[in-house]
Every structure is written in structure tokens, then in C-alpha cells.
Amino acid sequence: MMRLSRAEYKEIVRWTEKLRPTRRCMKILKDKFPSHSQSTLLSIFSLEYQKWIKRTFSRHHVPDVIESYYQRYLSEAKAQPTAPVLLELANEVDLSPALMARIILDRFLQGQDGGMPSKSVLNSMLKEPSLIPDQILASNVYQCTINDCCYGPLVDCIKHAIGHEHEVLLREKLKEKNLSFLDENHLRTMGYDKTPDIILEVPVAVEGHIVHWIESKASFGDDQSHQTYLNEQFWSYWNRFGPGLVIYWYGFIGELDCQRDRGILLKDCFPTDIVTLCHATQQDRSPESQNKDKE
Amino acid sequence: MAALLESLLSQKVDIIKVVEWLKSAGDEDKLSISELGLTVHKEEFVPFLLNFLREQSSQALTHGPATPAKTPSRPRPASASGGNGTRAASRVQLFSPSFVPASRPSGSERRGGQRIMLGDYMVSPPDFQHRRGGHYIDETGGRRSVRGGEGYGRIIEQVSPPSVGQLNFNNLEEFPPVGSSPISPAASKPTRRINPTPVSAERPRSKPKTCFTSTPFSKPSSPLSGVVPLEGSMTGGSSLSLQEERELLKKEKTKRAQQVGSPQPSSLEPCTPTKTVLKTGSKVTPEQQTTCPEPSKVTFSLELDLLVELYSTCISENLVPNIFLELFFVMQLLTSRSPHTHDDEQESLCAAHSHSGVQPVHNCVYFAVKVLENQFQLVAHLDKCTLRLLAENERVASFSPHLRDLLTQAQDKSTAKVTELYLSTFIHSVPFQPDTDNRSNFSSDKAFHIFKKQRDIFYEVLREWEDFHKEPGWNFDTALGNRIRGMMSQMTSAGNHSHFARLFLKQLIQMCKGPRVNSTSGDAPDADLLGMLGAEGLGRLKRLEERLIQPHGVVGPCSPPSFPGYQEFFRDFLQAASCCQLNQHLQDSLCQQLLQLDEVSILSPPASICERDKEEEEEDGDMEQQKQRFSSVLLLARLLAKFLGFISFLPYQTSEKPSREIQDTAIALRSKSVPVLDVCAVLRNSIRRRHTILTVPWLVEFLSMLDFIGPRLLCYRTTLGTLLLFACRKLVLDRCEEMCYLNKLLMVSVLGWLFQIPVIPEDIFFTSEFTEVAKVEESDINVAGLDCIPLVDQQLLYTCCPFLGEFRKLLAAFVSGSTAKSGGIIRKITPTSAELKDTPAAHRSQQKLQVDLEQAFFHNQPPSLRRTVEFVAERVGSNAVKHMKATLVNELVGRGEKMLRDGLGSPNSNPSKLNDSICAQLCDAGLEALARATRFCCEKSPEAIRILLPHETSPTVLATSENITKRLATEKACSWLSANITGNYIAVGPRTDKELPTGSQLLTLLQKVGETLSCRKVRQRETSVIKLHRIY
């Protein structure tokens, strides 16, 4: 059910346009599309929201705009030191709270020592707001990052964890099926220049298609991300290891699964129809069956 | 010349004398006939005869492409021809009531325009020197005479040969838009219509994607277009409307026409010979009233018989440049038509020749049938379909029932199937091998990373080509040129050429190495489709596709060199890249691989073959393996040689033949540098060591890429001359020498093709200029080379010489022409929906999948793993057979013998019943051999594999390798055992329980058991127990 037709996908996308990255909005989406899994919906929303932010971010990321946000934050924070003023500001101007926090923190640090703050300092302070010298700003940044379900260090962390979880899941499934494989780390030590998550030592056939490698993606496969992955990863794998399988754990647009005959197969779960080389049964049977034939 | 012919025809000179002269080896070049005061040279007489025949038949041949034999354009001294040639030649009109083309009825003149040249071949007579060679229609739609045009003289006015201005290329009737039609898209209106009928969209259990009729052929995503699902059809299942499909078909046709027709911007045009295909693309449009040839109306049969004998001798003795061209000409005569009525003008001319009333077609057919009878051995080696068409040809039947019977018999022996299925269409990448591809193989991090990108760009370009190259208006250089050149310049800065050259060549070999008909490779197009149709069906599907988008034209057996299928990509890539560093690396690599191939096959197959007699008796299986190995090596060598030739002569390619002065300068310049490959030495060495059957076919591919000047350089001149001498001395088909017939036939065929392509000078065949520098050394008698082993089969012959399929087309065209009013070559095709076959298909696709998985397993493993597995399987399988023979079979025979003795000893024994019972018992026991051999293989294979593979091999890889080895070894052992011990009836299915072995089968079994044990050849079929007794 996580393999959506393009029409279904567009319907969901149409709805997400009205929503903001808040828990309440996620609930609305879930209620609207009860037959789809929450993760799929969240993933689609997240991708759409990111696209929207990419389109609009430049509007916010201009020196005088930043300056005006900063001045507003300063005056409002002064007036209401305990209120989540930065979060409200972000919602008001339609910017991701986490990104708003980043912009303001960046501006704050510039004011402190004049120079441009290093990225790593910025990132570590976003991750750990207690490192921020200003108490009020620290709590505002904290409120922004925990209330953003698409951007920010927490989201990154969650995404990373989910990605890792699915890789582990994949490996377990393979072990369960007795399929031996080499993983990314192994391949790197052997000097491969491009490495999928999994290379099967002995290829299998999934739904009649040969599979040499498996790539796990803990996200929804939409046009844009799939195209990027194809160019940067999947075709490169094909160019080195032959045909393979991509698992989009949170589903994908069904129409994208059109390269099966060319060696890229899409699935939304670990496949059930796996055919392996089965010599044992073959050789035991053949003389027997010939014996039978003569009777 | 003509005098000799005339004297022969009037029986003043004994035919036997002339035939003997023709048959005599090269030394006696001259024939002196004192009574007539004639001295005739062979090299002059043969072209004269060929041209005489063409001229005589020119009027009857109003169909099919021109088949001009390459005859020299050099004027000959008049004295050599002994005088009054002209008169003599035109006096006897054996086939045609009138040979002066100008006198043709105006109606047929237009159509006959193309054929005129057939009659323009008169060689010697001084006042008739208007020889112009074959006229190839080149890509610009114009006509150029490749043979140079000395001596047009006054005959031009008289004969009025068609000039460029006269030819109306937009006349669809004259130049039907065959695939290679040289005309603009405007002219690509299909002349033959295929009206597809809708296929039921609702087909239970079959996905829309397996319905090939619902898919447009221009679908870009797969090379086997038409098999791949449309994006849209996956979900909706709503196929395109019929109208759209037909539009697509039309587009595709137009595109094909453009591809061939439109001139390429590149100045390297002549080295892209696909574009210059000599397709006169004649369509057979029989005139409303044609004469039905009758044996009783044949005139001049005496003279015709003489001609048949002379002509046949020339063919048999390899005195003609291309025997298949002659055979094609003969078949054109067989299928010739002539208008029923003659107009007044012609009538009068006929009267003037006092031969009025001669119906040329009777004589043509008579002559053709006689030659076919005479050349039956050659004809019998054609494919089954051609033989059937010949046997069913009513003219053959009425002129020679005997020939028809022979042809019918020959059909059963013929195995060649004309498969136009190129290689499997699923492209496989070249695997990344850490040994050669990881960082340590590169000079710097930068080089390593650049190559990483380049590999990806290369495949991206390949995929894009696959998707779009058939689209109308798509141009390789425009679409991909800049990307490729960008890649090359990066490569130069990183010094990665050797890495890329290796990738390029591996991919080339992967994709273009010969048609794998049995599709055991892992790269099947679509498992579903294959499951539904089977490999055979897929081939048919491919042919259907071709027929839908490309009407068949009869092209004749002299198609110029081409780069079919994926080869086109690699050629275009090299042209677009035009990177001298890459080309140098490729050259080095190609040379090395070619010479290695040439060596490899000397070492492995023959060595084992020669020792085999004593060592092993598994002839059938082994021979089949040897043939497969040979065919694979040969096809690979041909591919590599073609590309080596392409790259080597690329710098010298010109679109036009340079003038003599330019040629001389170029020869002087180029003779100073060393050629890329010492072809002379390779050839000489090959003749000496008797492996010409491998070397000659690939040398031909190499030489076919020559530029115009190349053949005049000493090294290539010598090679061409040597090949020519070799063909005349060693490849005469009828002489039973050390070389096998099909081996010779393959070489004769490829050499004939080579001598006929445009860049090879026309005078090569009939002068001594080439042969005087050449020598054919005697081969070393002590070397048992490849030449004496029957390695070539019909399949390989047809794979290497696809033009042999032209015979079938010509004959098929005749059949359809004589039955269908429309006169189209091809029957109408009405697509109907395919039914999904049930269980057998499912089973087959499962089996296929297993084979694919096995191949895929090897794909990402080091090549040594595969070699080890195959070697072990081969040895263990062989040992299993030996073991069975030494143990079980031995014991069985002993038991049988005892039973026989006991049985015969007992009173009132009935030999035949006794025989039956013994046979039954032994047969049962014989089956035990299969089980035992299987056990043997399963036990021994893993041991060997474990010792031979690297210690570090992962357990799974090891286990899989062991299993594959077991399977292969078992397969080898069991197939031999079941073929040789248990008789035919076990391995051949399908069987039912009721189908019990018959007595004679059992007898065969016993014989085999006996033979196997005693290693004695039993020639005759044993009929009684007594004979059985004698064996032991």
C-alpha cells in the first residue's frame, strides 16, 4: 500500500501545501489519509516542505531581512523573556523554526565578536543550546528546534537513526534468509569507489529480476529525490555491479519503478519473492526423475 | 576471348580441353589453340565469360539487385582477344532476343535502368570498351561509378546508359523506400502496407507489458524496443490507439530511411559503410503477363550446356571473385521474368538476328537449373528455408525433378537457421574488480576520482544512445559529442586512457560478441517475455519487428561492411571522441588480444583434439564443445579485428577515391611507417601452421576496413594477393583435401565478400599485380592445425556471412510475386494476441532464471573463478565417464554376455525373445550409470574446487562454486552417458509411461555398450543376437 500511484501522491502533496511542520498539522494529514502509513505521510510532507523552504529561503536570507528579524526578536524577547517569541516569529514569516533559530544565532554570534562564527561552533550550539552565552536566546533556540519536524539537529539525528535502523533491519532480513553479503564498510576497505549498502555475494532473483546489490532508503521516493539518487548512486552501482534493488521503506511513486528491465528494481519492503540458486534440489532430482520416466 | 567462346559454342574447340585448362593450377595460365591461332589468358577469359553471361541475360533480369562481378577496368590490348570479338559476342543471343538495351520497349526501360549495367560488362572488344563497374548508389542519392569510367566512348550514345539526370529517385516504383533508401523522408511512403488489427486488450493473466503489439517500436528505454513496457501501460493498461501505433511505425520507418539515407556531417563517411549500403532494394512487381518457362521451349540447349560446364568449372575452381555472387546471379536467372509480348521494334531486331521467337526465360531457367544441379554440393549447404523454397520452386520441379528430389533430401540435413536475432539485448556493465580498479591502480587520488566519474559518464552516454538513437532527427555527435569530448580532455589531464580503453573494450566485447543463440548468458531481455515465447519465439518476435518497420529488399550478397547493433555505438563514440591517445591505447590492446586469440586457439582445441583419439572417446560431446569454443573465439577475433581495422585506417579515410597522383604520393609516404599489424606474417604463419580457418575470417574483417590507398601499400597488397592465391589453390571446394568442406566454404565466402567491397581495387582479381608479390607456402605437414577439424557448422557460416540470407529473400520474393497480385515481397502480417502458455513456460522461465543467476554469480567474481569452475567441471565430468566405463559398463557387458551364453545354451531358446529380455535388463541397469556418475561428480567436484580456489574465498562463494561445478560436471557426464549408453530414448522427451523402449532401441543400446567397452567401431547396424555375440 506504500507504493502510491502518481495521482494518489499528487493528492497528498496538494494537501501538504496548506500545512506547517507542526504536530497538529501531522494529525490533520493522518486523519485525511487514514489508509496511508504515518511514516509515509510524514516523509512526503517533509520532502514537500523542504522543497518549499528551498524555494523561499532566499527571501529570508538577505542581510536587511535578517537584521529586521533580529531586531524584532531582541525587542520582543526583552518584552516577554519567557515567551517563545522566536518560534512565533518563524511561524509568522513562514520560515522553518529551526532555520530561523540558525539565522538569529548566527547574527547574535556576529554581534558578539564581530567576525563570522565558524560552522562547527554554530552547529554545536544548535545541537546543545546550553552552550549559547545568552540564556534567553538559548531557550528560544531550544523551543525552535524541538518544534520543527523537518529541520534542525534533532530531525537530522532522527533521520540518521531511522536510516541506520533500516540498514540493520535489512541486514537482519538477509541473515534470516541465509543470504551472505558484503556491507558498505567492507567494500570501502577493498577500495571500491562507489558502495551500495549491501552487495550480495551470490546474486538472487527478485520477481524474476537479478539483484546484485541492495540500497536501503528510509524515505519516500518522489520524482526529485529518486532522480537525484539515480544519477548519483543507483546508476553508478549498476555501472559497477550490475542490476540491483532499491528499498524505499516509506514507499515511492509507483510509476518510478520503470527501470526494472534495465536493472533497477524498486520495492517498499524486503521482498518476499526471492529465488536463489538451488543446485541441491536440481541434482538430486534429475537422475531420479529419469529413473521414473523409464518406468 | 569472344573467339574462343564462339569456337566453343560452335564446337570447333573441344570443351574438355578448355575445362582441363581452367582446372589446371596457376602455372598454365595461357591456353593456345593452334587451329584458331588463339592465345587466351585465364584472367581474361573468366571475366569475359561472367560478363558474357550477364550481358546475355540482362533483359530477363528485371528484378533483384544488380550483381555485377568485379571485373577489371584496365583496358586490355586488343590483340589478346583475338580479333573479332564484338561481332561474335553479339551474334549469339542465348537468353535474350535482343541485347542492345536501347531497343527495349520503352515501358520496361525505366525499370530496367538499373539492370542495364549487367549488359555493360563486355570486356575485351576494343570498340566496346564501355565497361563501368557496379554502380553503387551512395548516400547522397547520386550514382557513382566505383570502377572508374575509361572508355565510355561512343557506346554511350548508342546504349544510353542511365545518367544521374535521368534517374528519378523520387520515383517510388523505381526506388522503393527500402530501409536504406537513399531518398529524403518524403519518399519513405510505405509501398507495402501492414494493417495491424487491434489486439484484444483484455488478456487474462498477462500483464500489458508482455503484449508487444501494444508497445511502440520507438520506445526508447530498451534496445529491444517493442518488448519493453511503456511507462503508461504499466498501470492503466490502456494501450495506444491503433492509429498512434501506425503513426509510430511510420515514424520509425522514416527514421530508418534517414539513418541510412542522410549524409553524415562527418568527413569520414566512407568508413561508416552502413550508410552506403548497396541496396537497390528491388521490389518484385511481376508484370501482369509473364511467360511461364517450359523445358520444351528451350532453344540452344547444346550451347547452354557448354556454357553451364564452363561456368560451373569457374565456380568450382574458385576462378570467380565471389562464388555466392555467381550463385545469386544463377538464382536470379531461375526466378527471372520476361514480358510476354514484344513490341514491333524489338520484334524486328529479333528478326534481324534470325532468332525471333526465342523466349529468353526458358533458356534462363534451363541454364540456372543446370548450374544448380552442377553446383549441388554448394547449394546443399544453404539454409533449410532456402532449400525448401528451391525445392518447392515450380521451375526447378518442371526443369529438373531430379534436382527437386535432391533438394528435398538435403533439407533434412541442413541445420542452419537464419537467425537475425542479434545478441541478447540486456546490457551488462563491466564489473568493478578491486584488483584492477581500486585506488592502488591509479597514479593519484585525482586520477582515481576522475575515472570514477568517467565510468559513470560512459554508461550514461550509452544509456542515452540506447534510448534515443532510433528517434528521428537524433544525431550522435550533436547529442553526445560534447560530453564525450569533455570526458576525453579530462582523461588526458589525468592520464587515464589505459583504464578507459580497457573499460571500453570490455564493454564492446560484452555487448557485441556474436549472437548468442542459445541465450545461456545472464542477460536476457525480459524474463516474462522469454518465458512466454522462449528463445525461439523471441527471435521470431525480433524478425517480426524488423519486418514491420523495415520492408525487406533483396540486397544481393555483397553488402558493404557495417557496424550492426551496438557496434554502431562504439564506432560513433570513437568518431565523436576523436582522441588519438585513446585510439593508440585501444590499438595496442586490440593487437595484443587478437594475437593472443590467434595463439590461444592453436594451443588448446587442436592439441586436445589430436590426442583425443587415444585418450578420450567422448567425441560427440567434446566435438560440440570444441566447436563452441572455436566459434566463440572466431566471433570475438572478428569483432576485435574489425575495430582494430577501423581505428587503424580511420586517419586515412576519404569519402572519394583519391586520384592516381595523390595515391602515389600517399603510398610513398605511408610505405615508410610500420603498419599496426604485420598481416603478411600473420597470414603466412597461419597458412604454414594450418589454422587459416581462424585467421582468414578475422583478417578479412580487418582488411574490410581499409581505406582506398591501403590496398596498394606493399604489405596489404601482398596480403590480398596471398589470400587470393590461397583461395584458388587451397580452398577449391570440390577437391577433397585436408580441409573440411564447411571450413573452406566459410573462407571462400568471406573472401568473396572482401574482394567485392568498394575499397578493394577492382583489378585485384584478374591481374597478376597482386599475386606476383604473393606466395603461398606449403603448410607444415607435421602440424595438425585447426584447418583439418570440422569446426565450422552452418550456424557459424550464416553468422559470419549474414548475406547468405539473401538467397532466401530472393526466392521468397519470387514465391510471393508469383502468387500475390500485389507483388509485395512479404506476406501481410496480421498481429494476433499471444496466449500465455501454461506450465511449461513457467517451468522454462524458472530454468532460465537459474541459468541467469549462475551467470550473474560469475559476473562480479574475478574471472579466474569462472575459469577454475569450468575447468574442474570439464575434468571431473570426463573422469566420471571414464570411471563408469571402467566399472559399471564393464560389468554390465560381462553380465550380458553371460546371460546370452546361458540363454543360447539352454534348449528351445528363442534368440529374439532372449535378446529382448537381456536388453531390457541391461537397459535398466545402464540407467544406474547416470545415478552413479552424478554421485561421482558431486563427490569429486567440491574437493577439487576447494583446493583450487583461494584460501580466503568466502564460504558462500565457495559453496556456490562447488554447486555450479557439480551441476556442470554432472551435466557433462550424464549427457554423454545417456547419449552413448542408455540409447536415444531416455534423454529425448516428451515421454509417456506407455512409451516403452522398442526392440531396436534396446539393440542399439547393447551395441553402444559393446562399442563403448571394446572401443571398436561397429559400422553396420546389428540385426541379430548372433552379431552381438560376435562383438565380444
Question: Could you walk me through the main structural features you see in this protein, from its secondary elements to its overall organization?
Answer:
- The complex is a heterodimer of chains A (295) and B (1032).
- Chain A is 59% helix and 12% strand.
- Chain A has helices at residues 6-16, 23-32, 38-60, 63-79, 85-93, 97-113, 119-127, 135-146, 153-176, 184-189, 223-241, 279-294; strands at residues 3-4, 181-183, 198-206, 209-217, 244-248, 252-253, 264-267, 274-275.
- Chain B is mostly helical.
- Among the domains of chain B are: 1-64 and 293-338 and 355-413, Serine Threonine Protein Phosphatase 5, Tetratricopeptide repeat; 437-477, no CATH class; 565-603 and 623-654 and 669-792, no CATH class; 850-991, Topoisomerase I, Chain A, domain 4.
- Chain B has 39 helices and four strands.
- Chain B has a two-stranded antiparallel sheet. Chain B has a two-stranded antiparallel sheet with strand order 3-4.
- In chain B, strand 3 and strand 4 form a beta hairpin.
- The interface between A and B is large, with 48 and 68 residues.
Approximate strand percentage of chain B: under 5%
Quote the distance from N terminus to C terminus of chain A. Answer: 50 Å
Structural class by sheet pairing and helices of chain A? alpha/beta
Instruction: Describe the largest sheet of chain B.
Output: 2 strands, antiparallel
Spans of at least 5 consecutive residues with low confidence of chain A: 280-295
Principal-axes shape call of chain B: globular
Which value, in Å, is the CA radius of gyration of chain B?
A: 31 Å
The tally of beta strands of chain A, per DSSP, is 8
Number of helices of chain A: 12
Keyphrases for this structure?
heterodimer; A: 295 residues; alpha/beta; six-stranded mixed beta sheet; elongated; disordered C terminus; B: 1032 residues; mainly alpha; Serine Threonine Protein Phosphatase 5, Tetratricopeptide repeat; two-stranded antiparallel ribbon; two-stranded antiparallel sheet; 4 strands; Codanin 1 (chain B); Codanin-1 (chain B)
